[in-house]
Write a structure and sequence with these properties.
Blueprint (H helix, E strand, L loop, with lengths): L6 E3 L40 H13 L6 H15 L6 E3 L1 H10 L4 E2 L3 E6 L2 E7 L4 H5 L6 E5 L2 E2 L5 H8 L1 E2 L3 E7 L7 E6 L8 E6 L6 E6 L6 H13 L5 E5 L5 E3 H8 L10 E4 L5 E4 L11 E5 L6 H13 L2 E4 L7 E7 L5 E10 L15 E2 L24 H12 L13 H13 L10 H15 L6 H12 L3
Helix pairs in contact: 6-7, 7-8, 9-11
């Protein structure tokens, strides 16, 4: 029996390879691996479809104006999929598929952010590492409310991602709502090609104990092979521990995460269970006999979704390895793209995936064993400076600026959005250090400098509280 090449993704339009900045190939379907079972053609119309056929014939033959019968069929399929109220099940007609494939031309670019729909809201699952979206300050769970000033209300995932994509080097303005904000924030993102590197490995030798750190940014077709190669290199250096970092990883191929789990989970317990519509559960086991000779931990955050959650849940429940960081996104379903023969495509949710203990984490996420938040300034918003920010003003941008100043050590006195004398003094200190005119006012130039320093500080490992906590934990497990 040929195994299914399941696709586990966080993006409702996941088989639109490249949507919203995704790169081609991540969710490709290998048609040679398995034929998708489809209902056999029949001349007899099932009883429950009689009224559908009647409506089709009535509209096609007697509507006041001539109609395109193919559009009636497309509308019927759209309606069926919409009635599921499942953001992960999506239909694209042949023309839409063609348009989308054309948008993947090398002259086009994206922002590098996985998106989904949750409770009718268009959300960012996670920006990819070093992507335009990450550099612009977009974060997991940001709700997209507008694209280039136009509301996204009523848009499908494809329609939204089509608006986000565009010529490389051009910009798109994403209007977002984020917890703690009093009004939407406009974030300008310059489109570009999206980085393809999915595995980044290194050794951390602080305190004399070599800890391997492997970051997985997504689960593409080649990720497992890359992971095994990097793990082999690290193990040759006599590791005292391994940290697997899936923060901001929105998912990808199930087969890819399975191959990685087989490196760590022993044959005693399943690393995953798949449940069908009838409640039948199929457990998956590895053939590994022994655990690794070093402690292991997993780093997660709100942007860890789907296949990332499979990895975290398996290592946590099957082998007792600790998860450190924040609760994950919460996406526990499996999709299969089904070509419909005329160039159109239906991506349908067909199964649930469960943790080794049988938990369904959908819309709940996986809670860490050791919860660690980043420093407050990591959660600041990009600054909006439509007019200079100064004394006695009070808004969200000032609050973010104060959080940045506080994190950079300038001591703004408060972080509630009220621009007081202490904040003005902190701004002057920033301007002095940057060799700028010391006005104490945050104009666009000062804001750019502040954001630059903020981004630089967040990229420093010493300021990554979650990473440092995980490294300390692994070192504590050594005799």
């Amino acid at each position: 029996m040929v195994r299914r090449k399941w696709i586990v993704v966080a993006m409702a339009a996941s088989f639109f390879s490249g949507a919203g900045g995704m790169y081609a190939g991540l969710f490709a379907w290998d048609a040679k691996e398995e034929k998708i079972e489809q209902p056999p053609p029949s001349d007899k119309v099932p009883d429950e479809l009689t009224k559908v056929q009647t409506a089709y014939e009535m509209i096609g033959n007697q509507y006041v104006s001539k109609v395109d019968r193919s559009k009636l069929i497309e509308g019927a399929i759209d309606g069926m999929v919409a009635s599921l109220k499942d953001p992960y099940s999506v239909y694209m007609d042949a023309e839409t598929v063609k348009q989308f494939e054309e948008s993947l031309d090398s002259s086009f670019g994206g922002i590098g952010a996985e998106i989904t729909i949750e409770d009718g809201k268009l959300l960012i699952v996670a920006p990819f590492k070093d992507s335009p979206a990450e550099k612009a300050g977009l974060k997991p769970k940001d709700q997209i409310v507008s694209i280039n000033g136009q509301s996204v209300s009523g848009l499908t995932i494809f329609e939204a991602t089509k608006k986000i994509r565009g010529k490389k080097g051009t910009s798109v303005t994403i209007g977002i709502v984020r917890p703690g904000m009093t009004k939407p924030l406009d974030v300008k993102v310059t489109r570009n090609e999206i980085p393809l590197e999915t595995v980044i490995a290194k050794i951390n030798k602080k305190q004399g104990k070599p800890i391997g750190v492997i970051q997985i940014t997504s689960f593409s077709e080649d990720t497992a092979k890359e992971f095994k190669r990097e793990l082999n290199k690290l193990e040759k250096k006599s590791l005292d521990g391994l940290l697997i970092d899936v923060r901001g990883n929105p998912g990808g191929f199930l087969l890819s995460v399975e191959e990685i789990l087989k490196e760590f989970v022993t044959e005693n317990r399943p690393y995953l269970q798949i449940e069908d519509r009838n409640g039948r559960k199929l457990p998956y086991f590895s053939k590994r006999e022994k655990v690794k000779p070093y402690p292991i931990a997993v780093l997660t955050d709100q942007g860890s979704a789907s296949a990332s959650e499979i990895l975290a849940g398996a290592l946590q429940e099957a082998e007792g390895y600790k998860i450190i960081g924040e609760t994950t996104f919460g996406k526990g379903t499996v999709q299969q793209p089904v070509p419909l023969g005329d160039g159109s495509n239906l991506k349908l949710t067909t199964h649930k995936w469960l943790t080794p203990e049988g938990r369904w984490i959908h819309q709940k996420g996986i809670r860490p064993d050791i919860e660690v938040r980043q420093p407050d300034y990591f959660y600041a918003h990009p600054l909006q400076v439509e007019k200079p920010l100064k004394r006695e003003m009070n808004n969200d941008s000032i609050k973010s600026a104060q959080m940045m100043l506080e994190g950079l050590g300038y001591g703004p006195g408060r972080t509630d959005g009220y621009f007081n004398k202490a904040t003005e003094k902190a701004v002057r200190a920033l301007q002095l250090q940057a060799g700028m005119e010391q006005t104490g006012v945050i104009d666009r130039k000062t804001a750019d400098r502040l954001e630059q320093k903020w981004m630089e500080e967040m990229k420093k490992e010493k300021n990554d509280r979650q990473l440092q906590a995980a490294l300390s934990y692994l070192r504590s497990k050594q005799p």
